[in-house]
Amino acid sequence: MTSMRFSKGEMKGKVLPPPSKSHTHRAFFLASMAKGESVVTHALLSSDTKATLNACRMMGARAEVDGSTVRIDGGELHAPRDVVDADNSGTTMRIFAGLCSMFDSEVTITGDESLRKRPMGKLLDALEQTGTVCGSNDGLPPVTIKGPNHGGDVHIDGSVSSQYITSLLMTSPMLGSDSRITVEGNMVSAPYLDVTTHMMRLFGADATRTGNVFSIKGGTGYRPYDYCVPADFSSAAFPLVAGAIGGEVTVTGMDLDDPQGDRRIVDVIRMVGADVTVDGDEVTARKKELKGCDIDMGEIPDLFPITAVLLSTAEGDSRLYGAPQLKFKESNRIETVVNMINAIGGDAEATDDGCIIHGRPSLKGGRIIHKGDHRIMMSAAIASLVCDGPVEMDDVECCAVSYPDFVEQMDSLGMKHEVI
Q: Among 91-95, 134-138, 140-144, 325-329, which is the least confidently predicted range?
């Protein structure tokens, strides 16, 4: 594990953020279920998406990787013959659990120590409504799945993770019967479901949404489709906030019409007072005096850590709210973010669904603990831009989950760092 010290620097320049992790996961799974060859270009090959590609191969898909292009020959699928290790990827584990309900042989899915603490109970409960037999460690991984999934009417609590619903949705066209999925309660991270159904339709599925009810035609399967993964707004948030608090940064390759919910980072940065301009596929953020504000994070929970950093030196008080599901991410992100902000001299307090931040003119710096959470690690590095002293941390390699070139790109923009 590499330890680093990040320090203030004048941020200026242009970067191409990595491809979307969420889109890459979905593209690999959809291409694996489609009969024939699909080509996924501009794919993110991170530790998480490699776990998904491994799971696809274990159920019979053939995949060839050439740089950021992945050719997948799918359709001839079978239950994995060995335990599937999802590593640290909650998306892999949750979507694949649904897919394994297609098979009439038992499949076991596990992951690393962190993943084995992430809840699966509500997804397993929903799968059992379809005739699937599920087992778990009191709702936690490892989980066992044994189909066949008969489809039909399914009700699922939407308050914990949209990945549960995505898992049910993506499996449904492969089933012999139509499916009707009703989401009960709050539908957290709903834009991710729009991404899911949009991509399903590209691969030939018949999936519609009316309010909180999804209707999917069974027996259609998927057809091959050549898919180009868009740039990731979740990752672009880090250089954009770096520009908003530390200089002027442009990110390229962005599609403001994409259904990614995290494209709202552009609106968030504008809301707090920074200067943001959009020119085609380029977005530029420039440093200005920032004002505190209240922001609903319910549909954009992945932006919570970097938004907290953005507001840590904004004038006045800010409230981030509406995202209790943050407790069930790679870490308890409410707790980890508040501890991170306070450890480097900020003033934040946790709430049940977010946090309250009392802005300060600058932060002091210090050592933070990110608990292996890539978004906390990268947010803390960006926070060094408003700190009088350096920000230190261990295990900087964890950024490879979603942004493998993070340190190198931030260095190219002007952020100072050294190995300690």
A: 325-329
- Which of the following is catalytic: 73, 85, 302, 373? 302
CA distance 59 to 56: 5
Residue pointed to by tokens 């999804």: 214
Q: How confident is the model at residue 152 (pLDDT cuts 50, 70, 90)?
A: very high
Report d(CA 46, CA 378) in Å as an integer.
Answer: 15
Q: Is 317 a residue of the active site? A: no
Q: pLDDT tens-digit profile of 271-302?
A: 999 999 999 999 999 999 999 999 999 999 99
Please check the confidence at residue 206 and state whether its pLDDT lies above 90.
yes
Alpha-carbon separation of residue 315 from 11, 217, 264, 292, 293 (angstroms): 21, 52, 21, 5, 9
pLDDT of residue 280: 94
Q: What angle do CA 202, 73, 163 make, to 5 degrees?
A: 50
251/259: higher pLDDT = 251
**CB count, 10 Å around CB of 67?**
9
User: What pTM was computed for the model?
Assistant: 0.90
Per-residue 3-state assignment (H helix, E strand, C coil) for the chain = CCCEEEECCCEEEEECCCECHHHHHHHHHHHHHECEEEEEECCCCCHHHHHHHHHHHHCCCEEEEECCEEEEEECCCCCCCCCEECCCCHHHHHHHHHHHCCCCCCEEEECCCCHHHCCCHHHHHHHHCCCCEEEEECCEEEEEEECCCCCEEEEEECCCCHHHHHHHHHHHHHCCCCEEEEEECCCCCHHHHHHHHHHHHHCCCCEEEECCEEEECCCCCECCCCEECCECHHHHHHHHHHHHHHEEEEECCCCCCCCCHHHHHHHHHHHCCCEEEEECCEEEEECCCCECCEEECCCCHHHHHHHHHHHCCCECEEEEECCHHHHHCCCCHHHHHHHHHHHCCCCEEEECCEEEEECCCCECCEECCCCCCHHHHHHHHHHHHHECCCEEECCHHHHHHCCCCHHHHHHHHCCEEEEC
Residues forming beta bridges with residue 165, ordered by sequence position: none
